[in-house]
Amino acid sequence: MKKILIIEDDSSIAELQRDYLEAEGYQVDIESSGESGLQRALTESYDLFILDLMLPNVNGFEICREIRKERDVPIIFVSAKKEDVDKIRGFRLGADDYIVKPFSPSELVARVKGHISRYEHLIGKQVSKNTKLTVGNILVDVENRKVFVNSNEITLTSKEFDLLLFLINNPNHVFSKEDLFERIWGIDAIGDVSTVTVHIRKLREKVEADSSNPQHIETIWGAGYRFKI
């Protein structure tokens, strides 16, 4: 049974989420404060996290940042804050999705299912394929989800790793932002394709010798991005 942790200080919202998720067969735990939620997230094993932004003690952004240091399972933000700046910040910290309140519980369930399914699919495909890929000075250890540049390990978020692996597995092919969003995130939410630009920029900063003059992750103006080999 898949386990989900909800960190939400509004008990009515948290219980509604739990009811719908449990009806689909998930085991769901709830924490109402950021501090206790973060502690539980880092000490117990979960398959997905659902975070509110505005929490007592520790906010959702901080929780996401700390989880990403230790875990690469999916993270979904559920928040009343609908400004693009908050969404972009969430994605930059490693979130996989961002749902604005009020929301449809059935939509939340669908997104949870989608993210868990894609995560398991990616892990399964990666283990069954070549476990190590090398492109120039970049080495991707697929099975262990690690990336090395000039033999030095670099830290990537879950979606940064998935995006890099997808591009490397499809070299010299141009993908639009919409294509990449659909293939990596899998949910066609209007406006959220902006996260692709953020993730591409962060990847360049981490794997390119000169992010302003990338040798691998190229922008094809008016078309999208490609990984050049």
Structural description of this entry:
This protein is α/β, with parallel strands linked by helices and 229 residues long. It folds into two domains: 3-120, Rossmann fold, CATH 3.40.50; 129-227, Arc Repressor Mutant, subunit A. It has eight helices and eleven strands. It has helices at residues 11-23, 34-43, 60-70, 84-92, 105-128, 158-169, 177-185, 194-207, and strands spanning 3-7, 27-31, 48-51, 75-79, 97-100, 132-135, 138-141, 146-149, 152-154, 217-220, 224-227. It is globular and about 50 Å long.
What is the H-and-E element order? Answer: EHEHEHEHEHEEEEHHHEE
Number of strands: 11
Class from secondary-structure proportions: alpha/beta
Using only C-alpha atoms, the radius of gyration works out to 18 Å
Secondary-structure arrangement, i.e. CATH architecture of the largest domain? 3-Layer(aba) Sandwich
Q: Percent of residues in helical segments?
A: 40-55%
Strands ordered across the widest β-sheet: 2-1-3-4-5
Mean of all residue-level pLDDT scores: 88
Q: Please count the helical segments.
A: 8
At the fourth level of CATH, the homologous superfamily of the largest domain is: Response regulator
| Strand proportion | 15-25%
Low-confidence stretches: none
